[in-house]
Amino acid sequence: MSRQPGANALPAGLAxxxxxxxxxxxxVLAVDGARASIEWLNPAFARxxxxxxxxxxxxxxxxxxxxxxxxxxxxxxRAAMGRAEACSALLRCYRPDGTLYWCSLRLxxxxxxxxxxxxxxxxxxxxxxREMEMLLGRHDAQAEFAQRRLEDADTVDRLTGLQAPHAxxxxxxxxxxxxxxxRRALTLFVxxxxxxxxxxxxxxxxxxxxxxxxxxxxxxxAFRRATDVSARIGDASFxxxxxxxxxxxxxxxxxxxxxRVRALAIRNPRAPRVTSVTxxxxxxHAVPAQAHDWRAFLGLGRSTLAEGQGSGVERxxxxxxxxxxxxxxxxxxxxxxxxxx
Length: 341
Hints:
By secondary structure, the chain is α+β, with helices and mostly antiparallel strands. Helix content is 38%, strand content 23%. A hairpin with a 5-residue loop joins strand 3 (87-94) and strand 4 (100-111). 35% of the residues are buried.
């Protein structure tokens, strides 16, 4: 059924000009059993639904739900209408092209001067809000799962006392979802000594392990906030995460860690360019709510460090992940320290 909208048989005294100008979608429904046919609608209601007014007037309100008529919200509305009570429900609705949107619908009973019953329908498209709630709900569930796995993991690296690689990945995953929920920034720091393979060939494993413990101590000493985490994530690589750190302090913070290692004056006499153990760093900065995947985030940290060490020593490279790039690719590197060798 389709007919042109009009105000001929609408409730006497209804302020139609005011309803016409309202920003929210409003419709007037005739009481017709459980059918609730639309007798009038304002432009905002038509815009929200995507239907022409002539395609809605005379049809049951439920036409905006397409073929999805078994949803709980419709049942709640029909039951309340049967009791002539005001009611609200969240509905899955569909535009003529099949696009799904979420509609918050409120029905209020009114009576005109002739004591005839009508309904006023107030509708809002809350799709963006609903999608964010669903996204954060998924994040919360994933974060809870990560927390349980973290509690069960072997968390400590026996050589350095820092977190073990698996435990660090779980902690990173947990921090990722937490920061996505709270819309906070998350920063990953990845460190590795330069030419450590040369050091190991020169002095052997026992001395090499001692060197790694000193480097680990320097890294851990720079990340002592309650939300910070530091770990050994490879034979000779370390990582840390910082929550909510201002971007303009990140490069300086990593440089100070590298300077601590240089100040240890651990001799590496056969290394090219330097005569002592030095440290390089990659810093990856993200806002998880705007980015994609914590695994790619960690992978970018590892690859960025490897590229930096391939071009020099005591490299400090800062890079954004997911902030300005599409499909999760990192933005171009924003800075690096000069080669000190």
